[in-house]
From TrEMBL:
Belongs to the NMT1/THI5 family. Pathway: Cofactor biosynthesis; thiamine diphosphate biosynthesis. Residues 1-184 form the SsuA/THI5-like domain. One of its GO terms (biological process) is thiamine biosynthetic process. It catalyses: N(6)-(pyridoxal phosphate)-L-lysyl-[4-amino-5-hydroxymethyl-2-methylpyrimidine phosphate synthase] + L-histidyl-[4-amino-5-hydroxymethyl-2-methylpyrimidine phosphate synthase] + 2 Fe(3+) + 4 H2O = L-lysyl-[4-amino-5-hydroxymethyl-2-methylpyrimidine phosphate synthase] + (2S)-2-amino-5-hydroxy-4-oxopentanoyl-[4-amino-5-hydroxymethyl-2-methylpyrimidine phosphate synthase] + 4-amino-2-methyl-5-(phosphooxymethyl)pyrimidine + 3-oxopropanoate + 2 Fe(2+) + 2 H(+). It comes from the Bacteria. Pfam families: NMT1. GO terms for molecular function: metal ion binding; transferase activity. This is Thiamine pyrimidine synthase. Homodimer. Responsible for the formation of the pyrimidine heterocycle in the thiamine biosynthesis pathway. Catalyzes the formation of hydroxymethylpyrimidine phosphate (HMP-P) from histidine and pyridoxal phosphate (PLP). The protein uses PLP and the active site histidine to form HMP-P, generating an inactive enzyme. The enzyme can only undergo a single turnover, which suggests it is a suicide enzyme.
């Protein structure tokens, strides 16, 4: 959408954004609301999984559309192929639901701390039935929701001013939501045209999301960026990105927005 001019700014996970940049789409991170990763692999104990050493020979549910990159980096770190076989893992392209683990199609599925994990619990499994592997704990966490624009647009003073005001307002909203999780969840419900969301789930979700945005004022921490790049380049013969990016982030917007 952003490449075709349909949006001024997009939210993306950094692995996806950096992979797109290496392929020729010059995305630049202008703000980073999420400080920590909420991504996990959630597994059924009765599938024979108690540690990452048990992944070999198992089917693992993985989100694609750019969300697969942290998983691929992790498997590379573990030395596991992703094309099946007893010495590797079989990757199941997972929809944005948890059906594969409920229906026995996969030993593990991708989940977020604030959403899909709780869908599994709400479906009837208990925490004692499960073992979870947080990407943060496994040392393979990468930056998630950040704000990205096209590099060339930053040369336009009017565009820069618009982004400064947008980031300032966005971070004001995020920090208010951290402190007022229940009220923030009710705003989401008031704007849920589908009617599918529940108050319990939204309040629980906002409480978990607040743990991930805590510690960020919106400005990208260069150390977090370097950690993400290192993880994405650690794939041996098949890294997510092949060279350290240049110009992939800027503080030009947050330096003005967060005054």
């Amino acid at each position: 959408m952003i490449a075709g001019g349909g949006a001024d700014v997009v939210l993306d996970w950094m692995p996806s954004a950096l992979a797109s940049r290496e392929k020729g789409l010059p995305l630049v991170n202008i703000a980073q609301p999420f400080k920590s990763s909420g991504m996990m692999l959630t597994c059924r104990k009765d599938a024979g999984v108690s540690s990452p050493e048990d992944f070999a020979g198992k089917t693992l549910g993985v989100w694609f559309f750019g969300n697969e990159y942290p998983f691929l980096s992790w498997m590379n770190k573990l030395g596991l192929g992703t094309d099946g076989g007893d010495a590797g893992v079989t990757v199941l392209k997972q929809g944005f639901n948890v059906d594969p683990i409920l229906q026995g199609q996969a030993a593990c599925v991708s989940t977020m701390t604030y959403n899909e994990y709780w869908q599994i619990i709400d479906a009837g499994l208990t925490p004692d039935d499960l073992v979870v592997f947080k990407y943060e704990d496994q040392g393979v966490a990468t930056l998630e929701d950040g704000m990205y624009v096209l590099e060339e647009n930053l040369k336009d003073p009017a565009f820069e001013d618009k982004m400064v005001r947008f980031v300032r307002a966005s971070m004001k909203g995020w920090k208010w939501a951290e402190e007022n999780a229940e009220e923030a969840a009710l705003i989401v419900l008031d704007n849920d045209a589908s009617g599918a969301q529940t108050e319990e789930h939204q309040i629980r979700m906002m409480g978990e999301v607040a743990k991930l945005t805590a510690g960020s004022n919106g400005a990208l921490d260069p150390a977090d960026y370097e950690r993400t790049v290192a993880s994405l380049m650690s794939g041996g013969s098949d890294p997510v990105i092949t060279a350290a990016p240049t110009g992939a982030w800027t503080h030009a917007i947050t330096d003005k927005a967060l005054k």
